User: Which sequence fits this backbone?
């Protein structure tokens, strides 16, 4: 079984080959810039690890892994725009619209998203499997998933004052793509419906646990009342931690139904128990 | 053979069923807003007409037609943003970022684009054909096509001072999606490689003719020297008109190789000879 770091190195290597042929050449530079982040690459590693959990060669899931990372990266580029979160830096580097300009950042995100739907087709799977993968990627990324959650997050659903609305927001904003990362890895491996269900449950639980753990970390860093609605504000820190631990256990139980669950189990533990 | 208006009515009907289940509900409203334009729907009608030119039922190309219209519409929503063309109105209605706000307009475009890759899967074709359609849509919409052309248009390739660069810009910005509209209609109909080549030549010629005719119309309305680079500025109005007519004839010749070319021929004539 490959380690998290080995999978991450595979992802970095594959990402470095993207957009080298872009025209105009300077646009290629803009497109590659947000992909060189030194990020944790949780989604693509999850995708490769899910493929491996089924006993398949993770190489067959590399195209799907790239696709989910492209979708994640585009969402950050657009999220950072002045009309969204207005962030000047990400991981210590100027954001795309600061390093270049806003128009380039909009087009950059557009191109990364579009390329995800080409890249996901690059594996050894048959046509019907690839069609399912495209459909799942669109569901997770679009208005039924990530963008719907972001729309709720920018206030298009009104203020978020109860736990059910916050859960729905996060199931879209972060949960949908994390769950799809696991499920796409399974689809790439030719998983049975039952195994895909287990990966779905695993991914949903890890996605939500990720958000709860994030809220706990944010609350420990800054006890202020401003900022977005959070589980800690609605539930308190102890109940948020209890729920995150319960979700981790749900994820571990779901992974346990798969042939080689060790990698997925390690990710579920890492997501909840991480310190940053 | 169905008329342009009959195809257009089919497109309007199919578009009206999109995003009715969106959450938050107000986001659904934002998503439907730019689709209700009263536009000519050239791309989806071209797609349906190409399918029909092969003797197939155009109903099998409705999903592809919706997909190209979603891609076109998202590109307008993002193009209109203050950091791009900064347009307040489109077809006499406030643009999305004016009717709502900039963040909503960014997310709206993102969701329309993402949905295109789900919608295109909705036809009766087999998995392998659908995979080709997704790949072609991504090529046409992304950095190899439309977004690459837009990147050149916002200056990422430097100033456009020669005809070859202007041609490359427009092959991307408008030509790629118009050509893909014809080719996707052919793929939906199960066209042979030879027929797809004819549709490709037809679509490339019509796409470029469309741009040349636009430049002529713009020059007749406003003889000023400001505004973007244009064929009229580089070639003069007479040579631009001659080239547009030659491209129309290329398109007619390419369409002539297909079983039922009348609809495609009418569109090629309309594009070059239109008065607005």
Assistant:
């Amino acid at each position: 079984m490959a380690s998290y770091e080995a999978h991450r190195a595979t992802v970095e290597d594959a990402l470095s080959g993207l957009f080298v042929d872009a025209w105009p050449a300077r646009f290629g530079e803009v497109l590659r810039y947000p992909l060189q982040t030194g990020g944790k690459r949780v989604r693509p590693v999850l995708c490769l690890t899910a493929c491996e959990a089924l006993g398949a060669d993770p190489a067959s899931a590399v195209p799907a892994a790239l696709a989910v990372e492209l979708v994640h990266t585009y969402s950050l580029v657009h999220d950072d725009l002045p009309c969204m979160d207005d962030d000047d830096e990400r991981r210590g580097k100027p954001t795309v619209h600061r390093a270049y300009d806003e128009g380039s950042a909009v087009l950059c995100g557009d191109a990364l998203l579009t390329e995800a739907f080409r890249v996901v087709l690059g594996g050894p799977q048959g046509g019907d499997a690839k069609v399912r993968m495209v459909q799942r990627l669109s569901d997770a990324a679009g208005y039924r998933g990530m963008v719907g959650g972001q729309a709720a997050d920018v206030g298009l659903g009104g203020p978020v004052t109860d736990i059910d609305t916050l859960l729905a927001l996060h199931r879209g904003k972060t949960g949908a793509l994390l769950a799809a990362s696991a499920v796409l890895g399974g689809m790439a491996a030719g998983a049975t419906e039952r195994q895909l269900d287990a990966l779905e449950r695993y991914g949903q639980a890890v996605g939500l646990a990720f958000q709860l753990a994030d809220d706990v970390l944010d609350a420990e860093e800054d006890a202020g009342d401003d900022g977005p609605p959070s589980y800690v504000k609605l539930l308190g820190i102890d109940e948020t931690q209890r729920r995150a631990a319960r979700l981790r256990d749900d994820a571990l139980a779901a992974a346990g139904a798969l042939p080689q669950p060790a990698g997925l189990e390690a990710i579920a533990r890492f997501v909840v128990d991480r310190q940053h």
User: Anything to note?
Assistant: The longest helix of chain A spans residues 193-221. The domain at 4-273 of chain A is CATH 1.10.600.10 (Farnesyl Diphosphate Synthase). DSSP finds 13 helices and two strands in chain A.
